[in-house]
Design a protein that fits this description.
single chain; 15 strands; alpha/beta; Dihydrodipicolinate Reductase, domain 2; Rossmann fold; 2 domains; 6-stranded parallel sheet
Length: 313
């Protein structure tokens, strides 16, 4: 009997006779290694990793799972896949996995084109498959608690996703890379979508991909100001909600108004949620439509930097 990657679990030491989701991973870079660690710990049948780098074979051996250079060779042995490849490959790989009948969790940014995101959503719907996007902060305890708050009388919001001494990515700039996190947090906790977006960016290391940006979102009754980039001397992931009640959220510390919440690893919570949705036919809270909305907002921000105008959504 083939037990896949988590052979040491033996399906929860024989306790769980029901079959667990058979999942694989495509892409084992820095973030893919985190997926590997988490998938080896949670209640799933982690079958193997696909990566073009042959050094990944050592990682697979360490965790007692299969290794394939070509991801298509891994697909016949699984029913679900986690995709941790560069953003500019997400569309093609996700599409092929869906066409092969696999449930997909694809890392953010979902795609670099909102119309292609919509195409993938329609394909998943047609094939009756789960399609989730790695919007990690939806599984952060501070964000979850914030969403439960009845946010009223908001004057304005400020957010930061800044990183010190982090080398810029080569597949997308700070708006898609960092901004997609901030956009999605707002999409998650607020009941309304922004009416318009205005953005300014800085290109320092690259003429093609922005290093830093400031985005202004107009919600009609209030606005949100978002700072994102690689050039800041500090590493911060935080947010102020100014209004009838002022609220400060530190996403790294998982705290609200400097009160720390019981810590949980968001990636582990996200992967458990995805596996549960596949096993029990549930709709992911981070399904594809949210990836589409975020991609659309990132596109509008980039368009604003080119036109110098406010973009109506």
């Amino acid at each position: 009997m083939y037990l896949g990657g988590n052979r040491n679990k033996i399906f929860g030491i024989i306790g769980a006779c029901n079959l667990m989701v058979k999942i694989g991973l495509i892409g084992c870079g820095k973030w893919g290694l985190n997926h590997t660690r988490v998938l080896s710990q949670i209640n799933c049948d982690f079958v193997g990793i696909a990566d073009t780098n042959p050094e990944t074979k050592k990682v697979a051996k360490k965790y007692g799972i299969d290794y394939e250079k070509n991801y298509e060779d891994l697909l016949p042995r699984i029913d679900s896949i986690s995709i941790c490849t560069p953003t500019d490959t997400h569309y093609n790989i996700t599409k092929q996995c869906l066409l092969k009948g696999k449930h997909v969790l694809v890392e953010k940014p979902f795609t670099l084109n909102s119309q292609k995101a919509k195409e993938l959503i329609e394909l998943a719907k047609k094939k009756k498959l789960k399609l989730a996007v790695g919007h990690l902060f939806r599984f952060n305890p501070a964000v979850i608690k914030l969403k439960k708050n009845n946010l009223q009388d908001i004057h304005y919001i400020t957010m930061r996703y800044i990183h010190s001494h982090k080398k810029p990515r080569k597949d997308c700039g700070s708006i898609f890379n960092f901004g997609s996190h901030l956009f999605d947090i707002l999409n998650f906790i607020l009941k309304i979508q922004p009416k318009s977006i205005f953005c300014k960016k800085v290109n320092y290391f690259s003429n093609e991909l922005e290093d830093s940006a400031i985005v202004l979102l107009d919600y009609g009754g209030f606005f949100a100001s978002l700072e994102m980039g690689w050039l800041h001397p500090l590493k911060k992931r935080d947010m102020w909600i100014i209004g009838k009640r002022n609220i400060y959220i530190d996403f790294l510390e998982q705290s609200i108004n400097d009160i720390k919440l019981p810590w949980k690893e968001p990636l582990e919570e996200e992967m458990k949620h995805f596996c549960d949705c596949v096993d029990n036919d549930k709709k992911p809270i981070n399904d594809g439509i949210w990836g589409y909305l975020t991609a659309r907002q990132c596109e509008a921000a980039l368009k604003s930097t080119i036109t110098g105008k406010e973009i109506i959504l």
